[in-house]
Amino acid sequence: MTESPPSAAEQFFAALRELRQATVAVSYAMLARQAAAQQPPLKISGQRLSDWFLGNALPADPAVVRFLVEYLQSRATRASGYQQRPLSWWLSLHQHAAQQRQNNRDDGGHGAVLSRSHRLPKVWRVPTRNASFTGRVEALNTVRLRLQTGLTPSIAVLHGIGGVGKTSLAVEYAHRHADLLDVIWWVDAEEPASAIDQFAALAVELGVTSEHTMAKRGAAEARNWLQRHVGWLVILDDIPSSDLARDLIPAGPGRVLITSRDTRWSTIGAVVDVDVFSREESVSLLKTQNVAMSDSDADRVAAAVDDLPLAVAQAAGFISETGMPAGEYVSELETHANDLLGEGRPATYPRSAASVVALSLERLAGTDQAALGLLRLCVFLGPDPVPVSWFAGAEPMRPVQLRVVVGRLVRMGLARRTPAGDALIVHRTTAAIVRDILPASERRALRTRLQEILVSVRPGEPDVVHAWPAWALLAPHAAFLQNVSSGAEEIESPEFRALILSAARYLELAGHGRAANEMAARARERWSATLGDDHFDTMRAAQRQSATLPPAHPDALRIEEELYARRVRLLGPDDPDTLASASNLAMALADLGQHEAARRLDEETLARRRRVFGPDDNRTLISMDNLANRLSGLGDPQGAKVLRDGVLATRQRVLGDDHPDTLRSRLGLARDLARLGRLAEAAEIGDATLADATRSLGTDHRLTLTAADTVAGILRERGDTAQARLLGEDILARRRATLGADHPETVGSAVLLATDLAALGETAAAEDLRRQFALEPPA
């Protein structure tokens, strides 16, 4: 069904709200004072102004329109991007709107009140309902349950960050319950003085005072009436602080619904946290206004604005109006969020997403520069939780002061805390708008400072499993910071580049191969542009990119061949990095089945390492191990065992029996013996190695679990599937606990255990395990 075009009145109200949002420092009280100073004076109350900006009444006097337009356009901020309209346009639109409303009742010479449905309460003042309102069923039900009437008012507080849809939710609740109540009154509570005027207007509507009654007395009479009557709902929208609420909340057996970004409401009313849309709700709203949009495109747009309802609504309107493809919108959003999210404000929202953020920033700048500084840092990190402790040494303040600063950001709706309270989250859309507002020079300075902060909280080496939880917090933020860097003119510090490579290594070890590869590939691409292909860090990024590709991926061979040739040219054939590339190239060849070429390169690399580093150096021993693997791949387990014997003897002599590298050599020897059919010897070495690894490293160490895997494999070769199954269950449980259910080693353990269960006839248990890990059915 085709939507009807907006009426002249609706166009006028939308334009008026857009004009006021461009002048975020102008209050109702200031407008009233300026109007009184005109010649002749214009008498305008805060209540009238609120009605006009809410769209509940139309100014009747063109002089009032002239004053509002001229004054507000003179105060419009350049940062808002507001495009001024000629006064003649405003007066013509107002005249047209007034003609359309000429049959509505007169409003005392100040405005014509818009017509109401006969099903609405006798006293009704609520903004227009959002025709595209979607979802929010759980939140609406929660508000309904919280607002149960009694002798005192039942109070519910809709709390959430800016743009999350608190006001829209309150409007929808009011309309859904309109036929159940006698009085529903909306109060724009952002400015306390204006709120008093609006309560005074309620007294007039109730018939307990006249329009000539002083505002404070009228407000008191309205509150007295509410205290003695039932069947009413007062909505206090956008109260900036809970400290102001006690003077505004009326007493009596009614309902009070509050919207606020402040967090301190638990002692006043039942708090209903309003979160962002679910992805399904976002997609539904986008497709409602863009029927030809595919599900995948709607999902991309929703993900780009992180399901923030106001931003979703703006994106839906902008794409519908301009026809911009979803992919182009998402791309533009990355670099021009303030421009895009300053356009297309939905008619049912008082401000655009960009204006909501701009207003909060202006308030923050006037009250807490430290909080503003912390926010500016956080917007260059990712949308994941940011530990507060990271900033303890970054800003000159005590831990208690830092907590207070974080609390200020949370209360103003610019961030939220994690449930544990030790980290904060800045919404993706808020962060994008703030980044876009900042000057380029300030963006560069903040990124440089954040590089220093992230380097300072580096949790050690990525191959230490105990450090993985800290790396899990750090890695996504390091990647995000690199992604928002501006280009070839901005070169990261060597320490930050090392952090990026270590973060990619952590992701690889933790089983996040694709994320590791993407991080390394981006680093290589960026450093190739800023540092050149021959820079050491660019080459290290290429090496990490190759290492994180899936086995037998053709790109790995291409990258390793290019890298090896480059290092030979720049560093010579005997440089340690060149020899490392040679070893990696041999593995890439072997992964693609080119075992003979891999063997020749491994033999050459082993000879060079013996000559350069000596026979006892660990790098030489690694080459011997690699060559042993190549021989096994070529069907020569005896030749592999001879090499492994030499590696093991050297490591036992140089490193000792319990060193991790020695333990690895012992396991390799056990596997060689098993391939030769010498299962009893293999089992003896495997069992002893598992016992020594458990004693020296602990039961949950990755090498201990690798030893257990080797022992289980030998048990299967010997036909003892029952014992292999018992050991496999323990391995799976420990890997799931230490590495996570999605880690490749955990999944590999699940595959082996499912095979053992099936071989033992426990088909149902095997199928259940396959379902748990989404494993392919056996061939």
Give an overview of the whole structure.
The protein has 779 residues and is mostly helical. The protein has 34 helices and 11 strands. The strands form 3 sheets. Strands 3-5-6-7-4-8 form a 6-stranded parallel beta sheet, sandwiched between helices. β10 and β11 (423-425) form a beta hairpin. α3 (46-54) packs across α8, α23 (536-547) runs antiparallel to α24 (554-571) and α32 packs antiparallel against α33 (744-759). The longest helix is centred in the last third of the chain and has 19 residues, at 595-613.
Main sheet, how many strands, which sense, barrel? 6 strands, parallel
Q: So what's the overall shape?
A: elongated
Total strand count, please? 11
The total of helices stands at 34
Helical amount = 55-70%
Low-confidence stretches: 103-118
Concise summary:
The chain is mostly helical and 779 residues long. It contains 34 helices and eleven strands.
